[in-house]
Automatic annotation (TrEMBL):
A matching Pfam family: Proton_antipo_N
Protein name per Swiss-Prot or TrEMBL: Multicomponent Na+:H+ antiporter subunit A
Domain named MrpA C-terminal/MbhE: residues: 693-768
Predominant place of localization: membrane
Naturally occurring in which organism (per UniProt): Aureimonas phyllosphaerae
Location of the NADH:quinone oxidoreductase/Mrp antiporter transmembrane domain: 132-410
Gene Ontology molecular functions: antiporter activity
Amino acid sequence: MDHLSDGLLFLALALPFLGALVAPLSIILLDRLGSVFLALFPIGGLAILFQQSAQVQARVPILFGFDWVPSFGVRFAFRLDGLSFGFAFLILFIGALVVIYSGGYMPRGSRRGRFHAFILLFMGSMLGLVLADDLITLFIFWELTSITSFLLIGFDHEREAARRGAVQALVVTGGGGLALLAGLLMIREGTGLSSLSLLLDAPDAFRTSGIFVPALLLVLLGAFTKSAQMPFHVWLPNAMEAPTPVSAYLHSATMVKAGIYLLMRMFPMVGDSAIWATVLPLFGGVTLVVGAVLALRQSDIKLMLAYTTVASLGLLVMLLGIGSELAVEAAVLYLFAHSLAKACLFMVAGSIDHGAGTRDIRALGGLRLKMPVTFAAAILGAAAMGGLPPLFGFLAKEEVYAATATADLRGILTTIAAVAGNALMFAVALLVALKPFLGPLPSGMRRAHETSPMIWFGPLLLGVIGLVAAIFSQTTHKFISNPMSPPALDGALAVDIALGFHWGPALILSILTVALGIVLFLRAQRMRSGIAALLARIGWGPDKGFDQALRGLVAIAWHITNRLQPGRLDIYMRVTFGVIVATVWITLVWTRSLPAVPEFPRLFFYEWAIIGIVILGILVVAFSASRLTAIVSLGIQGLAVALLFMLLGAPDLSFTQFMVEILSVSILALVMTRLRLMPADRRPWSKIVPEAGLAAAGGIGLGLLLLAVTQRPFDTQLAEFYETYSYTIAHGRNVVNVILVDFRGVDTWGEIAVVLTTGAAILALVRIRATKPDGRHSRKRRRRSGELHP
């Protein structure tokens, strides 16, 4: 591609972020019209992407990006193909409608600008995720969606439920993100391929690698947490504490579809593996049925829709696990139909709440005359969700049953799960579309009213699009369905299903689903009571388990912290040096890096004298009766090192070492004179022996580590560089000084800052005046423990 096209695609990716940047000011200046202005940003991005539709339909991927961290092979790289185009369309189009919807739904105030900024930030993160080609870039945008969704779910942070929902979503999806990172890094290291494009061009490289099973399981864990598969589904219903525009966007068409996108992207690489065909149908089928049952249990419209979203995600995962051409085609159609229908119904739920003051299905009724436009949108959304003709959902449901209805055991089980789940979801759709609007109007809702056009425009348009997309299905397949379908093992899929009479098993199963859905709708109250009683009998569930896990984690962290950080300096020292010693020795032994025993060199008499000084200093420090004497004697070791530097021809380094040792000993001695400590170390032998052993293990281990490093081949490239360029670039002949002042000038400045900070802390410490202790017993206890007591 040329630079102009690359620039336009980068602009499409950046437009939501630019919209977030100007959102607060736009809302302040334009009030509710600011939402319409901000919707132009995703619409502009969508227009840019549609300019590439011809190449996308031809299944020719468009790659663009630049090197980001070339030394590690990381690129800020993106891929626009049919799959990413379809998801980008849903993200930007539904996102634009949600932005407009937010302008009418959110109350006036300074927080509206912040809310729009968060929505657009999430939109840009999600867009970057589905367009990302480099594996590291994919992970970064994956985590950005978790962070921005945390901000949106917890937007009403004054409420405890909103805070809990936000934390739960962040913990579950963030934990899955870490698993995904581990899987992607394993893929990079195991295959040597760093992008999705390279992996798609060479799928055998991943399947035949030694890391295939663990890497795939980690990637699936990341996808399952993001797309709310059992038992990781708990975060999605609790995320309904967010404002309704968030639910209509994140949890119907975008964030929860991130895991589905990843599975669709991985399908051409691993879709024919046994682990894929086993894990996905199992988790997807269970999630479908359980999610649909729990949806019928709820009475809050948003929670009903949330659990049907869980069920729908399970259906998508199950279809991708089946892995046939029809199953992949059905997954694509159902993804598109579900996104339109669920975003529509979530907006309807918000409109009902806005106009009637409640979302409780038991308290609603008779709103058809008060809210006729919302009623029409609800009918269209529910018909699409239930798969009724002539909506696009009908085409999707026909393909679902055509894919599952096979004669083998797996086909029978998946068909039963699909019929049961779809029937339950159809009953929920009927409840959402009919119960609030039919029947008599409750006395408390005389003031119910139709909402503003900014609120009902989005759901009505989405409902109409679900109808138009089915009537003109060939155009929909041309731009969306066919390009999105991943290539099958024997070529590209051709989606051509249209409205019409298709007698066969799929139609029979569709009729059965509708009939069961109507029966469940008529018996909804009794079913709700029965499910509630069953759940009460079971008691424990993943949601309670999440709270228990967090409480256990906090308790474990408290106990560990209490043991390792009790406020005693001696314990801090033991723990610190224990970790260092363990790290050094485990590394040396585990990696078999113990050095060879070197030949003892022939030493001159003055070198023997320096060794004798070192040994003498060690003995004085170890057996000194006074702390002050021990500290002064500790400087002998540093002075001996300075003498060695001088003998080896480094007088400037030797001088620096002399100054450091003199300064260190002086500061320590000054501190000792100002702190009230026992003059001698009178610890019992039961403490001295283990700590002496720890000190010896640390000294010997670090000595062996240093010896092992010096025995490795010396790489002279860096030394030659400094020797060559110290004078020509920095105009200095003293290489050491040039390195410190010029080449590593910023590092040296940082070291000076550390020294100054330490000096200021020491100055503050020595100026502390002794305070009167609480009593004699506390003074003696502190002194015995060796604590610093000013």
